[in-house]
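Lab meeting, item 3. Inverse folding demo.
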């Protein structure tokens, strides 16, 4: 799998384009002003200090796998520092998620996969007036995330703990219009397409869906191709680490691979 993943990465680098290779004004503007905005921001410093604390935290957690909807609930012990090192998304990616959330006018954000809450914090800080509902399957991990939210003074985050298959459909049903959904959950074709299809009845012109790990094995790559082909999808942006999905009716259906 690692060999194929590396091959996919090399192919992506060779075939992807910068903003100058895009002919869509919408995508050019998004790449130029958001994706390629690598300037330092004060908010990054505060959040990254919290990440460093997690990387040095030797508290033992009992990790369980409820989010995948599996009948097997494997439990194992890990240090917070180990989870932070191996499971948290890197600053470059989480800061991109911040910029995407900040760029779009949002009232509601749903995140599947809280982990230790660093990406959640970026989402919440990007839109302080938006409600961020984040879902996590592991109670111990969720507890650490909650403490991070308290420490950073967040008041616009609702943390739900349990099985995504139970929590996500209910939350979507209760959200008349989905603004941003960040899907970082069960990395299988079936689950990813299920999350996508669950969102469809409540999407609108300004909805942004972000899918994490779109090159994580054949199943995820197949799911990404199926999502791209869906008739309601008009624009997708493949950044390798994540995929962006838009439903703008005034846009010609196009798919972009962008170097990031």
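The presenter then showed the designed sequence:
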């Amino acid at each position: 799998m690692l060999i194929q993943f590396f091959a996919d990465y090399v192919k992506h680098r060779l075939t992807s384009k910068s903003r100058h290779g895009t002919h869509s004004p919408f995508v050019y503007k998004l790449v130029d002003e958001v994706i390629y905005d690598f300037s330092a921001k004060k908010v990054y410093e505060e959040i990254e200090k919290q990440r460093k604390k997690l990387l040095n935290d030797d508290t033992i957690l009992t990790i369980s796998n409820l989010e995948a909807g599996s009948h097997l609930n494997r439990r194992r012990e890990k240090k917070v520092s180990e989870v932070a090192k191996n499971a948290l998304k890197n600053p470059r990616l989480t800061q991109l998620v911040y910029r995407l959330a900040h760029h779009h006018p949002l009232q509601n954000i749903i995140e599947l996969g809280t982990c230790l809450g660093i990406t959640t914090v970026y989402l919440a800080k990007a839109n302080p007036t938006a409600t961020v509902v984040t879902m996590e399957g592991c109670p111990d991990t969720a507890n650490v995330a909650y403490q991070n939210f308290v420490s950073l003074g967040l008041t616009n985050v609702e943390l739900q703990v349990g099985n995504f298959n139970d929590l996500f459909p209910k939350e979507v049903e209760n959200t008349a219009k989905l603004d941003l959904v960040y899907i970082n959950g069960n990395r299988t074709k079936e689950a990813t397409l299920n999350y996508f299809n669950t969102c469809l009845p409540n999407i609108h012109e300004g909805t942004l869906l972000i899918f994490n790990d779109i090159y994580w094995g054949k199943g995820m790559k197949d799911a990404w191709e199926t999502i791209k082909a869906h008739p309601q999808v008009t624009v997708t942006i493949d950044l390798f680490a994540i995929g962006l999905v838009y439903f703008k009716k005034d846009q010609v259906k196009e798919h972009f691979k962008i170097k990031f």
